[in-house]
């Protein structure tokens, strides 16, 4: 079996499920070109635990972990099966790398997981299981976590980090603005680091990129990018998912590492 690509996907607001825009269309096109994995392992900042958690459910529920959005969102379900065997294998791989993971028999998929998957694999016919984002990660530890997951890509698992390339919730909730220039400046800096394969620079994003702390007042929506990049173990063969900017402040860009050629 050939090595699976890994990816970072921006999941934006929960409304992305019903308002796909340019990012949703690009994810749908991407899903048609990706090799079919045995399962998707997805890391979302909406499930954080002190040590890594791994969802073992054979039929993970769709978790509607949000409020204040259209009631129609609560009627959306993503009925993909889980993959208990590969989830259990993930626990073994993480233990071998020195982490202390815990299995969760009843863990479903939060919106950071099922919303992007709804566009990437809309038929919900690819097994999906979620891995939590460990708390108290910094950039180096996030990279180490992705490196620990890397062997799974040789076993048919597509590792996906789900976050947001920019994520200032205060501005999202309290400002009605056109696209903020700082969002594009930050996004362009990150894109350049990724395309150059400059992983050391990428890990320094939140201390060196322009407007880094405005783009990410907290780290959790950025760290899944480092996890996905580290899990790929590839410096090049990167495809950009140009998702545009929604709500004026949310960059929806993503990246596929060790990417197959575009159709």
Automatic annotation (TrEMBL):
<comment type="similarity">
    <text>Belongs to the DODA-type extradiol aromatic ring-opening dioxygenase family.</text>
</comment>
<dbReference type="InterPro" id="IPR004183">
    <property type="entry name" value="Xdiol_dOase_suB"/>
</dbReference>
<dbReference type="Pfam" id="PF02900">
    <property type="entry name" value="LigB"/>
</dbReference>
<keyword id="KW-0862">Zinc</keyword>
<feature type="domain" description="Extradiol ring-cleavage dioxygenase class III enzyme subunit B">
    <location>
        <begin position="36"/>
        <end position="234"/>
    </location>
</feature>
<dbReference type="InterPro" id="IPR014436">
    <property type="entry name" value="Extradiol_dOase_DODA"/>
</dbReference>
<keyword id="KW-0560">Oxidoreductase</keyword>
<keyword id="KW-0479">Metal-binding</keyword>
<protein>
    <submittedName>
        <fullName>Dioxygenase</fullName>
    </submittedName>
</protein>
<dbReference type="GO" id="GO:0051213">
    <property type="term" value="F:dioxygenase activity"/>
</dbReference>
<keyword id="KW-0223">Dioxygenase</keyword>
């Amino acid at each position: 079996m050939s090595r699976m690509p890994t990816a970072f996907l921006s999941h934006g607001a929960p409304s992305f499920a019903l308002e796909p825009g340019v990012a949703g269309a690009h994810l749908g096109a991407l899903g048609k070109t990706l090799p079919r994995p045995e399962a998707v392992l997805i890391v979302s900042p909406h499930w954080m635990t002190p040590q890594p958690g791994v969802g073992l459910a054979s039929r993970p529920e769709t978790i509607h972990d949000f409020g204040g959005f259209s009631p129609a969102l609560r009627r959306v379900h993503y009925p993909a099966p889980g993959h208990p065997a590969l989830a259990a294998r993930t626990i073994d791989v993480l233990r071998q790398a020195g982490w202390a993971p815990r299995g969760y028999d009843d863990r479903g998929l939060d919106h950071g997981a099922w919303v992007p998957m709804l566009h990437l694999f809309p038929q919900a016919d690819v097994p999906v299981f979620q891995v939590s984002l460990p708390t108290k990660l910094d950039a180096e530890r996030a990279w180490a976590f992705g490196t620990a997951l890397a062997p799974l890509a040789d076993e048919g698992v597509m590792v996906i980090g789900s976050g947001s390339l920019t994520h200032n919730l205060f501005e999202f909730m309290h400002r009605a603005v056109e696209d903020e220039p700082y969002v594009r400046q930050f996004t362009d800096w990150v894109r350049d680091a990724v395309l150059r394969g400059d992983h050391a620079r990428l890990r320094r994003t939140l201390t060196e990129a322009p407007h880094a702390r405005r783009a990410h007042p907290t780290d959790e929506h950025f760290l899944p990018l480092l996890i996905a990049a580290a899990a790929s173990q590839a410096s090049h063969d990167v495809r950009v998912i140009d998702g545009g900017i929604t709500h004026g402040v949310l960059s929806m860009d993503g990246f596929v590492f060790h990417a197959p050629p575009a159709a």
